[in-house]
Design brief:
three-stranded antiparallel sheet, single chain
Length: about 250
């Protein structure tokens, strides 16, 4: 379906996306196999690889920004949306930003360090964790607690949600949730680990048990928004104890 204004010199063509967010798909389905996770991850990785080969990083990858073209089909196809935080990262350039969504941002965002394609790969690790468990690896009671968990790399594979998950699937997540971005596999052609991100999708094995579960004792939290991580000016150079959050970068 296309929207065309014949009275304007500019013509806007829009995809019709019927399936809603991947986040809601996971929440509603309540049973997600590793085969299904592989299908989604293969599409996500191919899309991110396409961006990275053109030196573009998304910087806000999350299930809320991944849409299904159709929902009630055997093998849903996805579209990556919302490029509001995306940046073109050319060789030799340094890009830093304090923008992102607390649950999905990488430690280098919080620490105000140079960002690049590995920052996207961290987010894909978080998305994989959610696909296989229905839970968020770093979610705290507050955004500040969530950010502390991210910086510390503080997550675990709780047996309540990962008892039936293969070790290969867990290893896939571990290889992406690395605090040192230089160690993270990412898409070609930037960096020495060219096709590693696509090969990683092969490690996800067959899953037979439900993957989406509501958190014990309560419903799932609402999807997070993008935030600006700032610093108190009087603190001088940024330090972990001086971080604060406010909505921004929308």
């Amino acid at each position: 379906m296309f929207n065309v204004d014949i009275f304007s010199p500019n013509v806007l063509l829009l995809d019709l996306i019927r399936g809603g967010e991947l986040f809601d798909f996971i929440a509603e389905k309540e049973t997600l196999s590793e085969e299904e996770a592989i299908e989604f991850q293969e599409q996500i990785l191919k899309g991110v690889a396409y961006m990275h080969t053109r030196h573009i990083a998304h910087f806000d990858l999350k299930p809320e920004n991944i849409m299904l073209l159709e929902k009630d089909v055997p093998h849903p196809k996805i579209k990556i949306i919302d490029f509001g935080l995306a940046q073109k990262i050319d060789d030799g350039t340094v890009y830093q930003s304090l923008c992102g969504t607390p649950q999905y941002i990488a430690p280098e965002v919080i620490n105000y360090e140079p960002l690049g394609p590995p920052t996207d790969m961290w987010s894909i690790g978080v998305i994989t964790y959610i696909l296989l468990s229905g839970m968020s690896p770093f979610q705290g009671e507050t955004d500040a607690e969530t950010l502390t968990n991210v910086v510390a790399g503080n997550y675990e594979f709780d047996d309540r949600f990962f008892k039936e998950t293969s070790e290969m699937a867990k290893d896939f997540i571990r290889q992406l949730l690395l605090k040192d971005p230089r160690s993270v596999p990412w898409a070609p052609p930037i960096g020495p680990r060219s096709a590693s991100s696509l090969r990683l999708s092969a490690v996800l094995a067959t899953r037979r048990e439900p993957a989406y579960r509501s958190p014990p004792g309560g419903d799932r939290k609402e999807p997070g928004d993008a935030w600006l991580l700032g610093y108190h000016e009087e603190a001088g150079s940024p330090s972990p104890g001086d971080r604060y959050l406010r909505p921004a970068c929308m």
